Amino acid sequence: MIKVEDLTLTYPSGKGIFNVDFTVKTGGITGYLGPNGSGKTTTIRALMGFMRPDSGICSINGMDCRTKATQIQNILGYIPGEISFFDQMEGDEFLNFMSDMRRTKNERRKNDLIELLDLNPKGKIKKFSKGMKQKLGIVAAFMHDPEILVLDEPTSGLDPLMQNVFIDLVMEEKKRGKTILMSSHMFEEVERTCDDIIIIKEGKIVTESDVGALKKALRKSYLIRPKNMDVGWDIMQNKGFEATKFAPDIIEAYIGGDDVDRFIKAVAGFEVESLDVRHQSLEDLFLEFYSKGGN
User: What range(s) does the ABC transporter domain occupy (predicted)?
Assistant: First the structure.
């Protein structure tokens, strides 16, 4: 289990994370969402013991991330947001170095991952492309078969084919009961893999929810192009519908299941040039939470 309790960590600039509190359940995948600078990487660095928090506690498998950082780093798999290697090393030399440091040897697992990701680990790392370096980082994180994985933007630099391969790998690990915290800004990736989602904004948790509940909260909207925008807009407002101006000549109205009949009657009250249905995506919901601060 990964547990973060009332964690605050600030930089001299005043930015950081503030009273962050969440739990990653054993055997599940939790997505940690937010744009660059929102606090995702700072939280993860605190979990890895790389940064000392001002206050609060974070723990992994009951071990304090600050005082037991070395033990924690040896038992989990970690992909940093910005992967840094010993560039003079060769790829296979780096993987052997990581195995020796962890005192683990699982050649079959390592070779299976290398084959899965279509990686040639031979050659100087400094000559590797960004995608190759990302694959090398993935192999290093997964090859000792850890029970817990902390992944910071793990598909960065991967092409779409390899992103799908990685998602399949993560789902397989989930089936095997692994506990995974994954930061990402790719909503399809999160929707396909995660059980729970945490959204962070400006260092503070905006909302937490399981993906199933979020999907149920997704709404249907209608894009209406009235012949006369002013008339259509006034009617939608007067009838009390939640509506926005999607474009200068298009109204977007959010309609719940109980309001469909009332909506149809309202639209019949003005001339309409076109009417389209738009299904809200997880990304739309994220942007809504983010813009409103979760309120």
Answer: 2-227
pLDDT tens figures, 94-149:
999 999 988 888 899 999 999 999 999 999 999 999 999 999 999 999 999 999 99
pLDDT at position 250 is: 97
How do the domains of the chain map onto residue ranges?
2-215, 219-279
Phi (first) and psi of residue 254, to 5 degrees:
-95, 120
Task: Map tokens 């939640």 to a residue.
Answer: 242
pLDDT tens per residue across span 186-205: 777 888 899 999 999 999 99
> Which CATH number does the domain 219-279 belong to among 3.40.50, 3.30.70, 2.60.120, 1.10.287?
3.30.70
Looking at every residue in the chain, the average pLDDT score rounds to 91
pTM above 0.85, yes or no: no
Residue given tokens 């389209």 in the structure block: 276
- What is the three-class DSSP state of 48? coil
Amino acid at 217: A
Q: Point out which residues pair with 250 in neighbouring strands.
A: 247
Confidence of residue 292 (pLDDT cuts 50, 70, 90): low
Look at residues 174, 179, 204 and name the one whose alpha carbon lies nearest to residue 60.
Answer: 179
The residues near 24 (Cβ < 8 Å, ≥ 6 apart) are 1, 2, 3, 30, 179, 180, 181, 196
Separation of alpha carbons 105 and 117, rounded Å: 19
Beta strand pairing call for 196-201 and 204-210: antiparallel
138 CB neighbour count, 10 Å cutoff: 26
- The order of strands in the sheet holding 148-152 is 76-79, 148-152, 179-184, 29-33, 196-201, 204-210
Return the pLDDT at 86.
83
CATH of domain 2-215: 3.40.50.300
State the distance between the two ends of the chain, measured CA to CA, in whole angstroms: 29
Q: Among residues 286, 73, 84, which one has the least CA distance to residue 189?
A: 286
Q: How many CB atoms lie within 10 A of CB 11?
A: 11
